[in-house]
TrEMBL record:
<keyword id="KW-0732">Signal</keyword>
<protein>
    <submittedName>
        <fullName>ABC transporter</fullName>
    </submittedName>
</protein>
<feature type="signal peptide">
    <location>
        <begin position="1"/>
        <end position="31"/>
    </location>
</feature>
<dbReference type="Pfam" id="PF03886">
    <property type="entry name" value="ABC_trans_aux"/>
</dbReference>
<feature type="domain" description="ABC-type transport auxiliary lipoprotein component">
    <location>
        <begin position="39"/>
        <end position="199"/>
    </location>
</feature>
<dbReference type="InterPro" id="IPR005586">
    <property type="entry name" value="ABC_trans_aux"/>
</dbReference>
Length: 208
Protein backbone atom coordinates (compact mmCIF):
# COMPACT_ATOMS: atom_id res chain seq x y z
CA UNK A 1 0.00 0.00 0.00
CA UNK A 2 1.28 3.49 -0.90
CA UNK A 3 1.05 5.79 2.09
CA UNK A 4 0.20 9.50 1.92
CA UNK A 5 3.70 10.36 3.09
CA UNK A 6 5.26 8.34 0.26
CA UNK A 7 2.94 9.92 -2.29
CA UNK A 8 3.85 13.41 -1.08
CA UNK A 9 7.54 12.59 -1.36
CA UNK A 10 7.03 11.33 -4.92
CA UNK A 11 5.05 14.42 -5.91
CA UNK A 12 7.74 16.66 -4.40
CA UNK A 13 10.49 14.89 -6.32
CA UNK A 14 8.52 15.24 -9.56
CA UNK A 15 8.01 18.96 -8.96
CA UNK A 16 11.73 19.46 -8.28
CA UNK A 17 12.61 17.62 -11.46
CA UNK A 18 10.24 19.82 -13.47
CA UNK A 19 11.68 22.98 -11.91
CA UNK A 20 15.23 21.81 -12.64
CA UNK A 21 14.24 21.12 -16.23
CA UNK A 22 12.76 24.61 -16.57
CA UNK A 23 15.92 26.16 -15.14
CA UNK A 24 18.08 24.22 -17.59
CA UNK A 25 15.89 25.29 -20.53
CA UNK A 26 16.10 28.90 -19.35
CA UNK A 27 19.90 28.71 -19.11
CA UNK A 28 20.13 27.31 -22.65
CA UNK A 29 17.82 30.04 -23.89
CA UNK A 30 19.95 32.75 -22.23
CA UNK A 31 23.14 31.29 -23.71
CA UNK A 32 21.57 31.30 -27.18
CA UNK A 33 20.57 34.98 -27.00
CA UNK A 34 22.65 36.93 -29.57
CA UNK A 35 24.83 39.70 -28.14
CA UNK A 36 25.60 43.04 -29.77
CA UNK A 37 29.23 43.07 -30.91
CA UNK A 38 31.69 45.96 -30.50
CA UNK A 39 35.26 46.28 -31.67
CA UNK A 40 38.11 48.69 -31.00
CA UNK A 41 40.41 49.85 -33.76
CA UNK A 42 43.98 51.04 -33.78
CA UNK A 43 44.57 54.82 -33.90
CA UNK A 44 44.07 56.17 -37.39
CA UNK A 45 47.47 57.72 -38.14
CA UNK A 46 50.69 56.84 -36.35
CA UNK A 47 53.80 58.27 -38.07
CA UNK A 48 57.04 56.34 -38.31
CA UNK A 49 59.98 58.03 -36.63
CA UNK A 50 62.36 59.62 -39.14
CA UNK A 51 65.02 57.19 -40.28
CA UNK A 52 63.67 54.28 -38.24
CA UNK A 53 62.26 52.07 -41.02
CA UNK A 54 64.25 48.83 -41.02
CA UNK A 55 64.34 45.27 -42.31
CA UNK A 56 63.15 43.56 -39.14
CA UNK A 57 60.51 40.96 -38.35
CA UNK A 58 58.41 41.60 -35.23
CA UNK A 59 56.21 38.94 -33.64
CA UNK A 60 53.34 40.03 -31.39
CA UNK A 61 52.70 37.14 -29.01
CA UNK A 62 49.32 36.45 -27.44
CA UNK A 63 49.00 38.63 -24.32
CA UNK A 64 48.38 37.03 -20.94
CA UNK A 65 45.81 38.28 -18.43
CA UNK A 66 43.61 37.33 -15.48
CA UNK A 67 40.63 35.01 -15.72
CA UNK A 68 38.12 37.86 -15.58
CA UNK A 69 39.57 39.28 -18.81
CA UNK A 70 40.05 35.99 -20.66
CA UNK A 71 36.68 36.40 -22.37
CA UNK A 72 34.95 38.43 -25.05
CA UNK A 73 32.57 39.94 -22.47
CA UNK A 74 33.07 43.61 -21.55
CA UNK A 75 34.25 43.89 -17.97
CA UNK A 76 32.72 46.48 -15.64
CA UNK A 77 33.51 46.66 -11.93
CA UNK A 78 30.83 48.00 -9.55
CA UNK A 79 33.56 47.99 -6.88
CA UNK A 80 37.30 47.16 -6.88
CA UNK A 81 36.86 43.48 -5.96
CA UNK A 82 33.78 42.54 -8.00
CA UNK A 83 33.77 41.59 -11.67
CA UNK A 84 30.63 41.91 -13.77
CA UNK A 85 30.01 42.25 -17.51
CA UNK A 86 27.94 44.68 -19.52
CA UNK A 87 24.67 42.92 -20.35
CA UNK A 88 23.79 41.82 -23.89
CA UNK A 89 27.09 42.92 -25.46
CA UNK A 90 30.55 41.53 -26.17
CA UNK A 91 33.83 42.39 -27.87
CA UNK A 92 34.49 41.11 -31.38
CA UNK A 93 37.32 38.95 -29.95
CA UNK A 94 38.33 37.83 -26.45
CA UNK A 95 40.28 40.63 -24.77
CA UNK A 96 43.79 39.06 -25.19
CA UNK A 97 43.22 38.48 -28.93
CA UNK A 98 41.80 41.97 -29.36
CA UNK A 99 44.83 43.55 -27.67
CA UNK A 100 47.11 41.46 -29.90
CA UNK A 101 45.22 42.65 -32.98
CA UNK A 102 45.40 46.29 -31.87
CA UNK A 103 49.16 45.98 -31.35
CA UNK A 104 49.62 44.44 -34.79
CA UNK A 105 47.56 47.13 -36.51
CA UNK A 106 49.33 49.91 -34.59
CA UNK A 107 52.80 48.72 -35.64
CA UNK A 108 51.63 48.14 -39.21
CA UNK A 109 50.31 51.71 -39.35
CA UNK A 110 53.81 53.09 -38.75
CA UNK A 111 55.38 51.26 -41.68
CA UNK A 112 58.52 51.13 -39.53
CA UNK A 113 59.37 47.43 -39.89
CA UNK A 114 59.51 44.90 -42.70
CA UNK A 115 57.04 42.46 -41.16
CA UNK A 116 54.80 42.24 -38.12
CA UNK A 117 52.61 39.24 -37.38
CA UNK A 118 51.35 36.69 -34.91
CA UNK A 119 53.82 34.07 -36.15
CA UNK A 120 57.25 34.46 -37.81
CA UNK A 121 57.80 34.09 -41.53
CA UNK A 122 60.74 31.76 -40.89
CA UNK A 123 62.10 29.92 -37.89
CA UNK A 124 61.87 33.03 -35.72
CA UNK A 125 61.53 36.79 -35.89
CA UNK A 126 64.02 39.43 -34.85
CA UNK A 127 61.95 40.69 -31.91
CA UNK A 128 58.91 39.51 -29.96
CA UNK A 129 56.38 41.70 -28.16
CA UNK A 130 55.37 40.04 -24.87
CA UNK A 131 52.43 41.64 -23.07
CA UNK A 132 50.41 41.28 -19.90
CA UNK A 133 46.98 42.93 -19.79
CA UNK A 134 46.67 44.36 -16.27
CA UNK A 135 43.49 46.41 -16.69
CA UNK A 136 40.89 46.49 -19.43
CA UNK A 137 37.67 47.47 -17.71
CA UNK A 138 35.21 50.16 -16.76
CA UNK A 139 35.01 51.02 -13.06
CA UNK A 140 31.74 52.45 -11.76
CA UNK A 141 32.24 55.57 -9.63
CA UNK A 142 30.88 55.60 -6.05
CA UNK A 143 27.81 57.62 -7.06
CA UNK A 144 26.89 54.91 -9.58
CA UNK A 145 26.24 57.51 -12.28
CA UNK A 146 29.50 57.48 -14.24
CA UNK A 147 32.38 55.09 -14.96
CA UNK A 148 36.13 55.35 -15.46
CA UNK A 149 37.62 53.17 -18.19
CA UNK A 150 41.11 51.96 -17.37
CA UNK A 151 43.51 50.16 -19.73
CA UNK A 152 46.94 49.13 -18.47
CA UNK A 153 49.45 46.98 -20.36
CA UNK A 154 52.88 45.78 -19.29
CA UNK A 155 54.87 45.36 -22.51
CA UNK A 156 58.31 43.84 -23.07
CA UNK A 157 60.39 43.75 -26.24
CA UNK A 158 62.41 40.53 -26.40
CA UNK A 159 65.31 39.93 -28.79
CA UNK A 160 64.71 36.48 -30.24
CA UNK A 161 68.28 35.37 -30.91
CA UNK A 162 69.25 35.38 -27.21
CA UNK A 163 65.83 35.75 -25.50
CA UNK A 164 66.98 38.94 -23.77
CA UNK A 165 64.57 41.70 -22.73
CA UNK A 166 65.70 44.89 -24.45
CA UNK A 167 62.91 47.22 -23.27
CA UNK A 168 59.96 47.27 -20.86
CA UNK A 169 57.13 49.78 -20.64
CA UNK A 170 53.90 50.15 -18.66
CA UNK A 171 51.26 51.79 -20.84
CA UNK A 172 48.13 53.32 -19.35
CA UNK A 173 45.07 54.99 -20.85
CA UNK A 174 41.93 56.22 -19.14
CA UNK A 175 38.70 57.98 -20.03
CA UNK A 176 35.54 58.99 -18.21
CA UNK A 177 32.16 57.70 -19.37
CA UNK A 178 29.57 60.32 -18.30
CA UNK A 179 27.01 57.55 -17.78
CA UNK A 180 26.96 53.77 -17.51
CA UNK A 181 24.95 53.37 -20.72
CA UNK A 182 26.59 50.83 -23.02
CA UNK A 183 27.41 53.15 -25.95
CA UNK A 184 28.83 55.78 -23.61
CA UNK A 185 31.08 53.20 -21.94
CA UNK A 186 32.23 51.89 -25.34
CA UNK A 187 33.13 55.43 -26.42
CA UNK A 188 35.28 55.75 -23.28
CA UNK A 189 36.98 52.42 -24.07
CA UNK A 190 37.75 53.73 -27.56
CA UNK A 191 39.29 56.94 -26.18
CA UNK A 192 41.45 55.07 -23.64
CA UNK A 193 42.48 52.55 -26.31
CA UNK A 194 43.63 55.31 -28.67
CA UNK A 195 45.86 56.71 -25.92
CA UNK A 196 47.46 53.36 -25.15
CA UNK A 197 48.09 52.13 -28.67
CA UNK A 198 49.34 55.46 -30.04
CA UNK A 199 51.88 55.54 -27.20
CA UNK A 200 52.71 51.87 -27.78
CA UNK A 201 53.38 52.35 -31.50
CA UNK A 202 55.64 55.36 -30.90
CA UNK A 203 57.55 53.67 -28.07
CA UNK A 204 58.10 50.31 -29.75
CA UNK A 205 59.84 52.00 -32.69
CA UNK A 206 62.48 53.39 -30.34
CA UNK A 207 62.80 50.07 -28.48
CA UNK A 208 63.59 47.85 -31.49
Amino acid sequence: MITWQALRRAMGATALALLSGCAAISAVSDAATPLDVFELRAPGSIPALAGRARAQDVIVEMPTTSGALSTDRILIRPNPVQAQYLPDVRWSEPTPQMVQTLMLRSIEATGAVRYVGRTPLGASGDFAIVTEVIDFQAEVTPDGETANVQITLLVRVVRERDASIVATRSLTGSAVAPSTETLTVIDAFNAASDQVFAEFASWVQTAL
